């Protein structure tokens, strides 16, 4: 397996991360129920994905 030859110093690692900007995931609205869900993710409300029922909604009794 590929293996790093040298340990990255704290200074080098922190400098590398200075220009990384954390952005929240873009939210999509479900085409079936209109709830907001993450892109490429099954809707947590109704279980639909791209207009089709992907997973049956779990019945919480
Ligand atoms: Zn939905």
Automatic annotation (TrEMBL):
One of its GO terms (molecular function) is structural constituent of ribosome. One of its GO terms (biological process) is translation. InterPro entries: Ribosomal_bL32, Ribosomal_bL32_bact, Ribosomal_zn-bd. Keywords: Ribonucleoprotein, Ribosomal protein. Residues 1-20 have a biased composition (Basic residues). GO terms for cellular component: large ribosomal subunit. It holds the Pfam family Ribosomal_L32p. Residues 1-21 are annotated as: Disordered. NCBIfam families: rpmF_bact. Belongs to the bacterial ribosomal protein bL32 family. This is Large ribosomal subunit protein bL32. It comes from Ancylomarina subtilis. The lineage of its organism: Bacteria, Pseudomonadati, Bacteroidota, Bacteroidia, Marinilabiliales. The gene is rpmF.
């Amino acid at each position: 397996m590929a293996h790093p030859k040298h340990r990255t110093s704290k200074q080098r690692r922190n400098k590398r991360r200075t220009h990384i900007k954390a952005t929240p995931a873009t939210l999509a609205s479900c085409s079936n129920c209109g709830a907001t869900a993450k892109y490429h993710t099954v809707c947590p409300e109704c279980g639909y994905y791209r207009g089709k029922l992907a997973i049956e909604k779990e019945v919480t009794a």
